[in-house]
């Protein structure tokens, strides 16, 4: 089974260590970054499946990082994390493209479920794109085959 790479972005070292430990225990491959610039460098040079990012960080906050990640690769699923949950930040997170919202302190089972849902969403999205490609190929090729059939039939009837 392919290893799931989860990038954790937070400016607090203890949060990074806690999530790294939890994700390892849940059989994910955690990669850590202590700021948004480092996170983007990692994303640009590695295959990242899921990003867990704190909202409130100096310099590049979670919303800016979310927009940067979306601009770079729309396939990466993004989860926001915060120790100061409000309805406004939860709504803003989802509105700006985060898949879900996780609050501190972390519940290991909740974290596992949300990351697994992210992976399922990513797989479904990939399968949907593939299916659309097949449908378009059929839509384009059917008239060509009909035309070839007509030409072949007219050749045989002569």
Structure description:
It is built from 5 helices and 5 strands, in the order βαβαβαβαβα. It has 158 residues and is of the alpha/beta class. It has a single domain, classed as 3-Layer(aba) Sandwich (Rossmann fold), CATH 3.40.50. Strands 2-1-3-4-5 form a 5-stranded parallel β-sheet, sandwiched between helices. Strand 3, helix 3 and strand 4 (77-82) form a beta-alpha-beta unit. Helix 2 (36-45) packs parallel to helix 3 (62-72). The protein is elongated and about 85 Å long. The relative contact order is 0.12.
In which range does the helix fraction lie? 55-70%
Which class in CATH terms?
Alpha Beta
Give me the CATH superfamily: Response regulator
Number of domains: 1
Q: What is the N-to-C order of secondary-structure elements (H for helix, E for strand)?
A: EHEHEHEHEH
Strand order in the sheet with the most strands: 2-1-3-4-5
Radius of gyration: 22 Å
Quote the beta fraction: 15-25%
Distance between the termini: 59 Å
* Unreliable stretches covering 5 or more consecutive residues: none
Helix and strand content put the structural class at alpha/beta
CATH architecture: 3-Layer(aba) Sandwich
- Summed up, the helix count is 5
Mean pLDDT: 86
Please count the beta strands (DSSP E, at least 2 residues each): 5
Which topology does CATH recognise?
Rossmann fold
Shape: elongated
Q: Main sheet? A: 5 strands, parallel
């Amino acid at each position: 089974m392919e290893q799931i790479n989860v990038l954790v972005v937070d400016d607090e070292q203890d949060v990074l260590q806690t999530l790294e430990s939890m994700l390892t225990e849940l059989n994910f491959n955690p990669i850590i970054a202590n700021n948004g610039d480092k996170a983007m460098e990692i994303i640009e040079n590695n295959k990242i499946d899921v990003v867990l990012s704190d909202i409130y960080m100096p310099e590049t906050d979670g919303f800016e990082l979310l927009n940067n990640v979306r601009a770079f690769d729309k396939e990466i699923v993004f989860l926001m994390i915060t120790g100061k949950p409000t309805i406004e930040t939860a709504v803003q997170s989802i509105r700006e493209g985060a898949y879900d919202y996780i609050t501190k302190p972390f519940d290991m089972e909740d974290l596992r479920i949300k990351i697994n849902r992210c992976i399922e969403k990513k797989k479904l999205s990939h399968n949907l794109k593939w299916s659309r490609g097949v449908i378009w190929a059929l839509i384009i090729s059917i008239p060509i085959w009909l035309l070839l059939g007509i030409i072949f039939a007219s050749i045989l009837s002569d």
